[in-house]
Specification:
The protein is an alpha/beta fold. The protein folds into two domains: about 250 residues, Alpha-Beta Barrel (TIM Barrel), CATH 3.20.20.80; about 80 residues, Immunoglobulin-like, CATH 2.60.40. The protein has ten helices and 14 strands. Helix 5 packs parallel to helix 6. It starts with a helix and ends with a strand.
Length: about 325
């Protein structure tokens, strides 16, 4: 807990609003009081503290059982879990990450069971406070993610955290769904120290750029190495700040007319999107090589667009635009 206190100034300097920590295994009185004290400190600095909790591990601590041999279907497990969540909410904790919920339905991994369990958890949370945020991962491969993520099912978590890889066709399909229909997804992205020396030249900066126009939260994996970068962009912190500013300006405006363009070139990912009264154009190079794109073949009025964001800094849109390694560009026509 002390290490987290030491990082508060760092968190305050970053363009983030929520910090997640994992719940400790030793749930004694001192640990819990330290946790509540940390939550108050975060709140005073306009930061939200999110707690990652394994409900079966909680039952192990509270009931003295081996959670690996227990099922969340057991009434005693549910009662202990919900009582503990009630205790945390009453003491001011407002955000929870339940991790990959497969562990809660391991004895009966079906679509119906996952949805029923999610509704049960969130029904109890919402009864404690309508502003409580719930997050989960979902790796279960059979369930219809598109219905869940676009809000057409009874899967009641506030957000589902998913890794994103725009280099994969299936991920781009999911991204298209969330742009067209909204939803409750929180895309997860992170950087490794060995790859963060020059932000512009790593594919994660392209992924970040491609997600900027979504009206949904981003989940950034924590690492101090994020800030050890050089190149056209001075720091990941600065770039995230630019992204956050754009997202805030466009927040809650309707997204419509999403079209993927340059479909036949597998080295390029590009789309157009209308947000409010403005038209946006994203172009991304999915490779490490330089690519020359004749944008006039796809966007007739390309000269009316101006650069909004780019992971290589300032660019001007021209008829034949040269995209550098993993370069991502967002242009806007007002």
């Amino acid at each position: 807990m002390n290490k987290i206190y030491e990082k508060i100034d760092l968190y305050k300097s970053m363009p983030i609003d929520t910090v997640k920590i994992s719940l400790g295994n030793n749930l004694n009185e001192k640990y819990l009081e330290d946790l509540f004290s940390l939550n108050k400190k975060f709140a005073s600095d306009n930061l939200l503290l999110m707690i990652k909790v394994n409900l079966l591990e909680v039952s192990k601590n509270l009931l003295g059982v081996n959670y690996k041999n227990e099922s969340f279907d057991e009434p005693k497990i549910q009662k202990a879990s919900f009582s503990f969540l009630n205790f945390l909410v009453k003491r001011g904790i407002r955000a929870f990450d339940f991790g990959d919920i497969n562990y809660l339905v391991k004895n009966n991994p079906s679509d119906k069971k996952i949805i029923d369990t999610s509704r049960l958890i969130n029904k109890n949370l919402r009864s404690l406070g309508k502003d409580v945020i719930s997050l989960c991962d979902l790796s279960y491969k059979y369930i219809d993610l598109y219905d869940i993520l676009t809000g057409d099912s009874d899967f009641d978590f506030s957000y589902i955290c998913r890794p994103i890889n725009i280099f994969d066709e299936q991920s781009r399909k999911l991204l298209k769904e969330t742009y067209q229909n909204g939803g409750r997804i929180s895309y997860k992205i992170g950087f490794s120290k060995s790859r963060s020396k020059n932000l512009s030249f790593v594919k994660e900066s392209l992924i970040l750029t491609s997600l900027t126009l979504l009206d949904l939260p981003l989940y950034i994996k924590d690492s101090e190495s994020y800030f050890d970068v050089a190149g056209p962009i001075e720091s990941i912190r600065d770039y995230l700040g630019e992204i956050l500013k754009i997202k805030n300006n466009l927040h809650a405006l309707p997204r419509k007319e999403f079209y993927e363009i340059i479909k036949k070139d597998k080295d390029i990912y590009s789309y157009s999107l209308k947000i409010g009264d403005n038209k946006f154009l994203f172009i991304g190079n999915l490779t490490q090589k330089e690519i020359l794109v004749n944008i006039s073949m796809y966007v007739s009025n390309y000269s009316e667009y101006k650069l909004l964001l780019g992971n290589y800094g300032k660019r001007t849109i021209v008829k034949n635009i040269l995209l550098r390694s993993y370069e991502g560009l967002i242009f806007v026509r007002k």
